[in-house]
Amino acid sequence: MSETTKLSVIEIKPEQAPALFIPNGLDSYLEHIKASVSEAPDLSTDKGRKRVASLSASVSRSKTLIEKPGREYLKRLKEAVKPAEQEIKRFVDACDALRDEVRRPLTEWEAEQEVIRLAKLAEADYEIALLMNEKFDRDAADAKVEAERIQKEHEERITKEAAERARLEAEATAQREREAALQREADLKAQAALAEANRIAAEKKAEQDRIDAAAKAESDRLAAAQQAEREKQEAIAAEQLKAKQEADLIQREAKQKEDARLAEEKRIAGEAAARAANVEHKRAINQQAVADLVAAGITEECAVQCVKAIAKGQVSAIAITY
Questions:
Q1: Does residue 290 lie within any of the structural domains?
Q2: Which of 7-16, 39-48, 74-83, 225-234 has the lowest mean pLDDT?
Q3: Domain range spanning residue 294?
Q4: Is pLDDT above 80 for 155?
């Protein structure tokens, strides 16, 4: 089935839209598109790569054949619900305006009550503030005495903490120096161990390299010897083949010459035999003609002369048929 034929079967008519553009309504078309591109072209060839591009493009074209009528159906649906949306909005806006109009007296009353409440709160806050000022002065004096005490304790605590920090820092410095010395000693030991391990590994590698090199040299020597032997045997075989071909050629040429000689001898012998048979045939006919003339009353000598003359074509209008 060609690509064009596959695509031509995808057609959605307007009357089909309500039954197709629903949840899972397009599954059959999707399966059809999947089946139409279920190939595995060889990407190592130019033809295979072009085929993959063509299959991908066919999926896009198939999608368009489904999407376009779907979009048109969706557009029709939106146009159909637009009057309902407009009427619902008009109704909601009218109800909101009516609700606000009905509640306006209550809203205005609540606003007035809030102003009265805030005014009463402000008056009460002023009276409380007068009472709080006296308490504030007493609390301020007590707070000053307490702050001076806290400041003194803070300064003493800072002095003690500074001395303690100095002691701890000195101990930490000494500990760090001891740990650094131990670390340096451990590092030196580790470096020495690593150097020894590297030396042993290097010696082992050098020995292994020597063994590998010797093995490779021996392998190369054997391979070279085998190659030389193969080349020698191939050269010998080539010389033998050449000699055989030359001998066969000489033998064929000799046979051809011998066949030609035998054919020539046969031809010559055949021609000689034919000439001898022809002579004998003519002699027999001539003898019969002489005998016939003698029987007709001509002397034998005259008959012989007559036949000779006729045979040589010396007698006009008369010939012997052999």
A1: yes
A2: 7-16
A3: 276-311
A4: no
